[in-house]
Amino acid sequence: MADERRAASLNGISAKPCPVIYWMSRDQRAGDNWALLYAQDAAIRMKQPLAVVFTLAPSFLGAAERQYSFMLEGLALIESRLEKLRIPFFILPGNPPDEIVKFIKKHKAGALVTDFSPLKIHREWKDKVSGRTRTAFIEIDSHNIVPCRLASGKQEFSARTLRPKIHRLLPVFLTPVPAVKRHPFPWPVKTERNDFKMLYKTLKSDKSAGRITWLKPGEEEAVKVLKNFINKKLNGYGADRNNPAKDGQSNLSPYIHFGQISAQRIALEVQRAGKDVESTESFIEELIVRRELAENFCFYNGRCDSFEGIPGWARKTLDSRRKDIREYIYSEKQFENAETHDDLWNAAQREMVNRGKMHGYMRMYWAKKILEWSRTPEEAFSFAVRLNDRYELDGRDPSGYAGIAWSVGGLHDRPWFKRPVFGSVRYMGGKSIRARFNAETYIEQNRN
Ligand SMILES: Cc1cc2nc3c(=O)[nH]c(=O)nc-3n(C[C@H](O)[C@H](O)[C@H](O)COP(=O)(O)OP(=O)(O)OC[C@H]3O[C@@H](n4cnc5c(N)ncnc54)[C@H](O)[C@@H]3O)c2cc1C
C-alpha cells in the first residue's frame, strides 16, 4: 500500500477515473519507489491503466555527457523492469513541463503523480504544470526517509536541531517498502520501446567531460555496490571514511542522486547487517541526518546554490574580509585544469575530473581553498558549484549545494577563530589535513 503521509497535493484537484501517470524525475527506479506505488494504488482503485513518463531536458544545471549517460543507461534498465510489470515507460525529450502537459492532455489522464525535489528548477517545472492543467497533481516524497515537509517546517539551523526531529520520526517512516505489482489494467495501445540513440541526439550536454566507467549505472548495480560496502567496508567506516588514501566510503552517492537506489533500502540493509555499532551509527548519521539536512536547506532556502543563500553571520564576516590580500588568486580555468601551487588540491581536482567522484573529506578542503584563492566569496561559490556540477556524477544535488555552502559560507556550522579572507568561517589548513592521512599516497593515486 502507498503511504499517504508522503503525499502533497500540488493543485487541490481530486483524481478522476482515467489513466494515471507517474512523472518520474528524481527517483529513477522501479523498486522501493513510494511515488510509483502511490500511482499504482490510485490506478488500481479506479481500475485504470498506469504509465511512467520521464521528460528528458536537453540540458540540466550544467550536467555533462558523463551524468547524462549514467542516467540514460539506468533508464534503459528501468524500461525492462517496468515492461515485466506491464507498465509502459515513455521518455519524452524536450522542455519538461511542456512535454508532460501535452502527454496528460493527449491521454486524458485522471491523475499525475510525481516525485519530490527541493530544487528550484524542479519546483518551477511543477508550478508551470499546475497552472496549465486541471488534472489532479500529487507529489510524493520518495527520496527522503522522513518526508522533507514533515521532518521540519522551516530551514534548520544545523544537524543538532534537525537530528532529534528526524530520529523521532524514523520508527514511523523507516519501514520496508512494498513491491509494485504486475499492473492489472493494461495500457490501451501497444507501445514501442524508447529509441535511446535518438534520445542521445536531443542532448546539448558537453561531451568533453568524458564518461565514467568504473561505476556501472542501474538499480541492480546499486544493490551490488551496497552489498560490497556492507560486506567489505562497513565495519571500518567509522575509522576509514575520512581517509582519502583508502577506499572507505560506500560510493553510493551517484546512485542515490539519480534515485537508482533509495536511501530507505540502504538504511534498512545497513541496520540489518549487524556490523560494528559505531561505524553503523556514523554511516546512518551521514546517510539520513546530513543528507536530509541538505534537502531541508534547499527546500526552505530558494538560494541554496548561490552565495546569497548562506547565513547572515557568515556573509557579514566574509564581507569584512573582502580587502584582505589573497596569497594566490586563480581563474576558474586554472582551478579546472588543476593548475594551483598545491599538489594536494590538484590531486583532488584530478580525482573529480578523472573518476567523477572526489573523496568526501577532500571535498571540504577543495571548496575551502577555492574560497581562499578566489577574488571574492561570490566568485568562489560559483566556481565550486560549476565545477562540482560538471564533473561529479553526484553533482546538481542538494548535498552538493549544502556542502559548498558549508565550506564557503559557514552553513550549518558556527563561527570559529578569525582569519584573513575567511573571517570567522571555519578554516582548513594544508598542513593539518596532510597530517591526518597519507597525503602522498593520495597525491600519487591522482597524479595524472
Ligand atoms: C564541497 C562539497 C561538495 C559536495 N558535493 C556533493 C554532491 O555534489 N553530491 C552529493 O551527493 N554529496 C556531496 N557532498 C557531500 C559528501 O561529500 C558526499 O555525499 C559523499 O562524499 C559521497 O560519497 P559516498 O556515497 O561514498 O559517501 P559515504 O561516506 O559512503 O556516505 C553515504 C551517503 O551519506 C550521504 N552523505 C555523506 N556525507 C554527506 C554530507 N557531508 N552531506 C550530505 N550527505 C552526505 C550521501 O548520501 C552519501 O552517499 C559534498 C560535500 C562537500 C563538502
Give your account of this protein's structure.
The model has no long low-confidence stretch (mean pLDDT 97). The protein folds into three domains: 1-143, HUPs (Rossmann fold); 219-300, Serine Threonine Protein Phosphatase 5, Tetratricopeptide repeat; 307-445, DNA Cyclobutane Dipyrimidine Photolyase, subunit A, domain 3 (Orthogonal Bundle). The chain has 448 residues and is of the alpha/beta class. It is built from 20 helices and six strands. Strand 3 (50-56), helix 2 and strand 4 form a beta-alpha-beta unit. Strands 1-6-5-2-3-4 form a six-stranded mixed beta sheet, sandwiched between helices.
Secondary structure class reads alpha/beta
Number of helices: 20
Order of helices and strands: EEHEHEHEHEHHHHHHHHHHHHHHHH
Using the coordinates shown, work out and report the CATH topology of the largest domain. Rossmann fold
The CATH architecture of the largest domain can be named as 3-Layer(aba) Sandwich
Number of strands: 6
What is the CATH C level class of the largest domain, in words? Answer: Alpha Beta
Q: Gap between N and C termini, in Å?
A: 51 Å
**Averaging pLDDT over every residue, what do you get?**
97
Question: Oligomeric status of the shown chains?
Answer: single chain
Low-confidence residue ranges: none
Give the helix level as a range of percent. Answer: 40-55%
Bound molecules: flavin-adenine dinucleotide
What is the radius of gyration computed over CA atoms, rounded to a whole number of angstroms? 22 Å
**How many structurally independent domains?**
3
What is the strand arrangement across the widest sheet?
1-6-5-2-3-4
| Strand content range | 5-15%
* Biggest sheet features: 6 strands, mixed
CATH superfamily of the largest domain: HUPs
Shape label: globular
